[in-house]
Each structure stands twice: as structure tokens, then as C-alpha cells.
Fold:
Amino acid sequence: MRLIRITLILTLLLPYHSLSAQNKAKDILDKTAKIVRKSGDMEVNFTAASFMEQKEKGNLSGTIYLKGKKFNIVSTNVLCWYDGKTLWSMNKATNEVNVSTPSQHEKETMDPYLFLDLYKKGYTYEMQESTLRGRDCYEITLKATDPKQEVREMIVSIDKATQLPLCVRMREGIKYWVRISILKCKVKQSYDDDLFTFKSENYPKATVIDIR
Structure:
């Protein structure tokens, strides 16, 4: 009889503990979002990689300059400018610039902080503590509640000391993953809007292809 009572109590407590853990995870994400948004313009050194069935399909490393929803990416092979509406992507090898209106997927693979606009709606939360690159972290897993949601799962590693993200992993579909590792971040920078727009006069030999 005593065992039955204990089992019943534990069963009744499970939803409470689950809800408490979800609330704590969301509180941490809320705090991180608030800190990032108060950090002003940022310079972020990063590496990014995409995977299919755990096999790496491509990678990129460099620096991204952020101002609100705008970004500028400088890397070895690619240059990108995004002014909040239009994306210019330059392949250095071919000297071609594609002009497009980026999809959600394209922005996800380039902006390490895009999850701040995604997590509040349509996800459940799970949290555990972990270590990444020698730093103690909160590791928060978000899973979509709507099967139509493009990002099905996210895993965000947040530095306990700074409350800033160290790594963001996103899954689309069943097997496609994108991982963005944030290696270094400078906050309270100040950038002109011109930084986020392609200037053809700076690249006179480039071929511009408008695919909008």
C-alpha cells in the first residue's frame, strides 16, 4: 500500500517538474534574449557547418557584423550583406554576386542569433547542464509542437557566466542539421547602415545576378 501511495505521488508530481523545468529553460532564454538585444551592434567570430545524417556537407568560418536584423558576413570564400530585406551573396571564387530575398532557412544558416525570434512560440523546452569548450553551460533543447514548423528542433548552449550563446544547432526535416559555433563576441559596437549593403563600385569586376 505504501509503495502504491509513493508511486501515485511521483506520478502526480511529474507534470509539475516538467512544467517547472520548461519555465526555467524559458526564463534562461528570455534572459539571454534580453542581454543580446541590449548589447547593441556586435562583431562575432563564428564557424558554421551543415550536416546530413551526421555527415558534414559544408562549412564556413569568419566574422559576422550584426545590427538588429541586419548582418554582414566576411569569410574566406563568401561575402554577404543583408539590409533586413535584400541579401547579396558574393562567391569569391567566381566573382559572382547573387541578389535575393532570403528564405527563413537561409537566414537561419547565417545568423547565430536568429533563434531569439523563434523560441517564444511553438516549442517545448528541455534543459540540462553541460560543458562546452571548457565553459559551464545551460543546454536547452527546443522541439517544435507544430509539424509545419520549418525548424523542427534547436539545441542552444548558453554560457552560465555571460548568459550569451556559445553554440546553436538547428534541425530541419529529419536528418538535416546546421551548427553555428560562436567563438568570440564583441558587444556595444557601432556600425553605419552602409556596412550591410553591397556596393558595386567596390567590386567593379563582379557579375551581379538578380534572382529575386
In short: Confidence is low (pLDDT under 50) at residues 6-11, 13-18. The longest strand covers residues 176-189. The chain is about 20% helix and 50% strand. The chain has one domain: 17-210.
